[in-house]
Amino acid sequence: MSEVLQELIAIAGRHAHGRRTKTAIPRVTIGRSEVATSPLPELCQPTVLFVLQGTKSVLIGDRTLAYSAGSCFVYAVETPATSQLIQASPAHPYLAIAFALDIEVIATFLIDHKPMIGGDDFATYPADDDLLDAWRRMLRLLDRPAEIPVLGPMLEREIVFRLLQGPQGAKLRQLARADGRLSQIRRTTAWIRAHYDEPIDVRELAALAHMSSAAFHRHFKAATAMSPLQYQKQVRLLEARHLMLAQPGNAARVAFSVGYESASQFSREYARQFGLPPARDAARLLARGEAATLEID
């Protein structure tokens, strides 16, 4: 393990309080856990996740991300996923930095700098020495909070620049361009999340993205690793699970509220996704205190 990564682990460990710590640095959050977890469905936001210690697996559609110490991944589109912490203990807790993407900051680089043409959009990659050093200088500000307003924005720009030059830089470029395919796909995923309880017409979504139906299917699958209908189902089930945890009780009422026409179909798909029928799953999470772990990065 490099000296830089060791220092990052030490700083993050000092400043992590609970499972998720929103730091004094804008858009920077520290995730921490002393225990491995069962698979936990979540909705990933446009974020760069950088794992410092421990291992983690994330299933997105039909693709699996494998995180180890020093690896990172760019989530460019809001995407339903299932995450599981594999290695975490009190002696060596899972530690990660989540960096929420600011599209306006990314856009300022697009005129003068072209990112590398990257490889697989659904694969983690090791942070190089330049990116690690930028992260070290950023996290050191947590011990010097008076310097955050001045140096924080400068270091954020450097980190964005390093990411643009990395293997997934092309993905960030597409995200920041108004006419980029990821920006267009994000418009449709936002519509699905806002109208998850309504039937969707894929032709209308394609029109919203200014694409043909064939091109839309192809680009949506490339961005999310699933079809639009699969994406909607994942969002519906995630919302249903939150409703079951917040208001335990009538699963049929929850099914209809998230857009299902059949309570039995809802129960089958819920159990297939989460391992148990709705009421039993909610009772298990509440009894084990696992509901809070849904927010670990």
Write the layout of secondary structure elements.
Layout: H1 3-15, E1 20-22, E2 28-33, E3 40-44, E4 47-53, E5 55-60, E6 63-67, E7 71-75, E8 79-87, E9 94-100, H2 103-107, E10 125-126, H3 129-140, H4 148-164, H5 169-176, H6 181-194, H7 202-208, H8 213-224, H9 228-246, H10 251-257, H11 263-274, H12 278-288
Antiparallel strand pairs: 1-2, 2-9, 3-8, 4-7, 4-9, 5-6, 5-8, 7-10
Characterize the structure shown.
The structure is a single chain. The protein is an alpha+beta fold. It has three domains: 173 residues, Jelly Rolls (Sandwich), CATH 2.60.120.10; 48 residues; 66 residues, Homeodomain-like (Arc Repressor Mutant, subunit A), CATH 1.10.10.60. It contains twelve helices and ten strands. The strands form two sheets. The protein has a six-stranded antiparallel sheet. Strands 3-8-5-6 form a four-stranded antiparallel sheet. It is globular, with a radius of gyration of 20 Å.
For the structure shown, list the relevant keywords:
alpha+beta; Jelly Rolls; 3 domains; 12 helices; Arc Repressor Mutant, subunit A; 297 residues
